[in-house]
């Protein structure tokens, strides 16, 4: 039996071996029947609706416990349909009027509703079309006396195989799943995000080649390469198991030393920080040996609220984070929001191109009241730790000057009110617009530090949206053009004697760590899970060799070649 | 029966959250409440119904309430829509 790998998209990294279990959604076969006792049929339907409500309420609860409130929220839409008169009463009325069986009426009403929703000019509503389809399917299965897919078939170590996975599917998966494989889906698909959150490898978008997978097959998933191997021969399986073991040992060994500083083999200290998106991330960051926070995204305060967060609410959150990290630095980024985000309480007009629009520091400077609330909260919280303040999406000097003068204004106001503020707060910028990198020497004179945000810098430099399947192959932060901007920024910082760091995803890629140190970075900030392994990589690095390596990769002509060269070291 | 006419001012019309808010408020009254847009009509207590009207900014709709609390229902819903439905 050949063991040729099948190609898909690597959506969540890592290697896994498991037994395939197909997650097939049954589409119930519905027959139209005439009934004599319409009231009995309506009762049967009502009973089924109650059963479905119970199941969904349970699903909502397990999802909340296992994954989180936000993900559990998808089931609220399902429940609201089961309580909606336009859906449920319509079905009951038609059973009475047409004297037809509940199955056939339920199917046609669901279809009508789903078509109505998908024809509405609103993406949110279109997505609800899938939800009502899901609900209708559950009702039809229950009416025919069957149960929807039983998640208990998925034992620990199973590899879930599916055409496509909806949020309501992944929510049901028990812990201990080895990996996920689907025919459709990309890196930004819901299943991909879920797999990365749970830390299990996933390969999506295998297309029709997924039909080669049968229940019970042994599957090797390589989430880094985006390939799967079916029923490997003994040799291949053995190799994969050894590789898994090796990776596991590396992780464990790295974790043991996670608390220790990251110092290169020739004695240069590299600070390894964590990116956090809320207070819930603090514990994981500390457990993985974060020496501070390189990027504290404050958007959660705005997105999880139904009003502009008040000074007190913000102060509380910032203070908690600063206290948790003690004397370690915490870089807090001011609000980075724009037309792509929907704040229910704000008038953010829809923009043709939100990523080139009125967002981040631009939005804050033209809404000084909103901005000043945040600045005041930060100045006050700064008393409780080592606060570094960072402005996003800066592209010219006057933006920094304007922001700093608002900061001064806030400080004076607080002084007059007799409220204590931190004496010295470091002020810096994100370098994420190509203009800021190219003009880094011009901006460096105004700030105490610069942090390179590679995710946006890459998308702006390469003009490629990685969420767009058609062009996502062009998106790679290891592109030599992006790396040249990184070096240029580091050079400008060095000449001014200020710190240059990096807080994009590139910073957390252990195979690129040597190149990044060679380019002149002294601080790397990443998702917590990557910290131990990157620290180990730093310890193996010689700075002189790293500089030569960086010189070499800047002359290469593709990100692929950069990554190959970086891997060899 | 009480009827109130109103022009929708909030930017996304009666979609998503604004529609949900309206349906929630309508659920507080015992009266039968219908929304009417041109020749279409929908139960104001049904999210799917309200969404199916596809009401956009600038559209004129009528709120028709019939029942014990019809005056209060029509008045409150009108105020809610006028206040911009949380947008």
UniProtKB/TrEMBL annotation, chain A:
One of its GO terms (biological process) is phosphoenolpyruvate-dependent sugar phosphotransferase system. It catalyses: L-histidyl-[protein] + phosphoenolpyruvate = N(pros)-phospho-L-histidyl-[protein] + pyruvate. The gene is ptsP. Phosphoenolpyruvate binds at residues 297, 333, 455-456, 466. The keyword Metal-binding applies. General (non sugar-specific) component of the phosphoenolpyruvate-dependent sugar phosphotransferase system (sugar PTS). This major carbohydrate active-transport system catalyzes the phosphorylation of incoming sugar substrates concomitantly with their translocation across the cell membrane. Enzyme I transfers the phosphoryl group from phosphoenolpyruvate (PEP) to the phosphoryl carrier protein (HPr). Gene3D superfamilies: Phosphoenolpyruvate-binding domains, Phosphohistidine domain, PtsI, HPr-binding domain. It is found in: Cytoplasm. Residues 7-128 form the Phosphotransferase system enzyme I N-terminal domain. Residues 35-62 form a coiled coil. This is Phosphoenolpyruvate-protein phosphotransferase. Belongs to the PEP-utilizing enzyme family. Its EC number is 2.7.3.9. InterPro entries: PEP-util_enz_mobile_dom, PEP-utilizing_PTS_enzyme, PEP_util_C, PEP_util_CS, Phosphohistidine_dom_sf, PTS_EI, PTS_EI-like, PTS_EIN. GO terms for molecular function: kinase activity; metal ion binding; phosphoenolpyruvate-protein phosphotransferase activity. Its cofactor is Mg(2+). It is an enzyme of class 2 (transferase). The keyword Transferase applies. The active site is at residues 190, 503. Keywords: Coiled coil, Cytoplasm, Kinase, Magnesium, Metal-binding, Phosphotransferase system, Pyruvate, Sugar transport, Transferase, Transport. Residues 256-542 form the PEP-utilising enzyme C-terminal domain. GO terms for cellular component: cytoplasm. Mg(2+) binds at residues 432, 456. PANTHER family: PHOSPHOENOLPYRUVATE-PROTEIN PHOSPHOTRANSFERASE. Residues 155-226 form the PEP-utilising enzyme mobile domain. It comes from Paludifilum halophilum.
TrEMBL record, chain B:
Pfam families: PTS-HPr. Keywords: Cytoplasm, Phosphotransferase system, Sugar transport, Transport. Gene3D superfamilies: HPr-like (3.30.1340.10). Its main location: cytoplasm. The keyword Zinc-finger does not apply. The keyword Cytoplasm applies. GO terms for biological process: phosphoenolpyruvate-dependent sugar phosphotransferase system. One of its GO terms (cellular component) is cytoplasm. It comes from the Bacteria. NCBIfam families: PTS_HPr_family (TIGR01003). General (non sugar-specific) component of the phosphoenolpyruvate-dependent sugar phosphotransferase system (sugar PTS). This major carbohydrate active-transport system catalyzes the phosphorylation of incoming sugar substrates concomitantly with their translocation across the cell membrane. The phosphoryl group from phosphoenolpyruvate (PEP) is transferred to the phosphoryl carrier protein HPr by enzyme I. Phospho-HPr then transfers it to the PTS EIIA domain. This is Phosphocarrier protein HPr. It comes from Paludifilum halophilum.
